[in-house]
Design goal:
- The longest helix has 18 residues.
- The chain is globular, with a radius of gyration of 21 Å.
- It is an alpha/beta fold and 448 residues long.
Length: 448
């Protein structure tokens, strides 16, 4: 399906998708006793890796839909799955995951654009000039297909060696294009989808060590030179031989202090019982202690489909029963019937404001961003309206749940409803101009 056709299909089915998303959002609002709703109460997402071939399993889909607010395709967006032959893209399995997530009001993380592994054989046979072209074409093709639909992308994955050297990993990209390939990938990605968050993702960087220092130095350099990087992903695969580092929170914080978001992207912890639960608690508490830790993703729904299944590393066992680690995570997130702390209702009336910015523009469309800011009281939810010129249509929306009445779009939170007094969040959308370049009208923001 071409990008244009996909966008038209999205617009044509927006009402059905919005209705399903509103149902999911209403469920979360009623019960902060799930991972996603409890995390939303802390201003974060809680996601999982998803395999398209398991979506037809009733218990798998039900657990996914009930518990999580974000998904990461496990393999379906990797290079071998999406461009098996040069210039020929295949999006069927990835589309299935994105469609399912959007029908439930979930965000999607894109994983991954440039990685040394799971490459089709033709990539390794290219010379430097052809490889540079192929890398940029792949980024543009994959991101273009999902433009405006992906919350954040793992642009480059696992580019540094393990061990004490902090050196770059040997790969076709490193060996033929040199150190500059990472910067080039990020610059290409920014142009491909200006609204998406762009992340570097790696493992064994969870504490302060030679590898994380090398990544830190790269991010610091990128920020100083204006290279577009928005976030750093910490995979966080732990076991008894590689436990949660004692300086985990401090490491997340030092990256956040560079001016990037941090995300826990592939969390799993081998073990069982109270020991596993305690380790999960450490991770969640570390994220909550770092204001720029925007969310956590566990690498799978159930132990039986984990890549480390013998180590039983996830929150649900093979029968989809909640493990002690699940209870510990929910408790650490403050899971209860009352997401967040909306404050004493006697202190004042919750309020919010909505401001609009056009963040990108091209001949046939544009991206808009609405920033929601809480007033002098904390809020637990917000609603904003966007009235479009009659000719225009919205082809994609992120970080919000839409409902339509004619050309008026009413947007409520997806995972970002709870705000402290004076804090801000927002949602973005892509518009097809259809001959009109007029700006939409933003209505009054209401809060509760």
């Amino acid at each position: 399906m071409s990008m244009t056709v996909r966008r038209l299909t999205r617009a044509a089915t927006a009402g059905l998708v919005a209705a399903a998303a509103l149902t999911a959002a209403a469920h979360s609002a009623e019960a902060a006793d799930t991972l996603g709703s409890a995390a939303a109460g802390q201003g974060r997402y809680f996601g999982t890796a998803v395999a398209a071939n398991h979506l037809g399993e009733a218990d798998y889909a039900a657990t996914l839909d009930r518990e999580f607010s974000s998904v990461t395709p496990e393999n379906e967006m990797k290079w071998d799955a999406t461009e098996p032959s040069r210039g020929t893209f295949s999006f069927g399995s990835a589309d299935r995951i994105v469609d399912h997530a959007q029908s439930q009001g979930m965000d999607v993380r894109g994983h991954t654009l440039v990685w040394h592994s799971q490459l089709p054989s033709w990539v390794g046979s290219l010379g430097a000039s052809d490889l540079r072209t192929a890398m940029n074409d792949h980024i543009n093709g994959l991101m273009g297909h999902y433009k405006g639909e992906i919350h954040s992308w793992d642009v480059v994955n696992e580019a540094f060696q393990d061990g004490g050297s902090g050196a770059r990993r040997s790969s076709p990209f490193q060996d033929k294009l040199g150190n500059g390939f990472i910067e080039e990938a990020f610059r290409t990605a920014r142009a491909a989808d200006p609204a998406a968050k762009l992340c570097y993702n790696d493992y064994n960087t969870d504490g302060v060590n030679a590898k994380s220092n090398a990544v830190y130095d790269m991010v610091k350099d990128f920020k100083s030179r204006g290279v577009p990087i928005d976030c750093v992903g910490f995979q966080s695969h732990f076991n008894s031989n590689s436990p949660v580092p004692s300086d985990y929170r401090q490491n997340l914080q030092r990256f956040a202090d560079l001016g990037v978001d941090v995300q826990i992207t592939e969390l799993d912890i081998e073990g069982s019982g109270s020991a596993q639960a305690a380790d999960y608690t450490k991770v969640v508490e570390a994220c909550l202690a770092v204001s720029r830790c925007t969310g956590m993703t566990v690498w799978g729904v159930t132990d039986k489909y984990s890549w480390r299944s013998s180590g039983t590393p996830l929150l649900f066992d093979g029968n989809y029963s909640e493990k002690p680690a699940y209870d510990a995570v929910l408790s650490a997130l403050g899971g209860s019937g009352d997401p967040g702390d909306p404050g004493d209702p006697g202190d004042g009336t919750p309020s919010c404001t909505a401001t609009y910015t056009r963040t990108a523009d091209w001949s046939s469309g544009y991206n808009g961003q609405v920033t929601i800011t809480a007033g002098g009281e904390p809020i637990s939810s917000w609603t904003a309206t966007v009235t479009l010129p009659a000719q225009q249509s919205v082809s994609a929306l992120w970080n919000g749940t839409p409902a339509w009445s004619g050309n008026v779009m009413t947007v409520r939170p997806s995972w970002n409803g709870t705000l402290a007094a004076g804090a801000s969040t927002g949602f973005g959308f892509t518009v097809a101009k259809n001959g009109s370049d007029a700006a939409p009208a933003i209505g009054t923001c209401t809060a509760s």
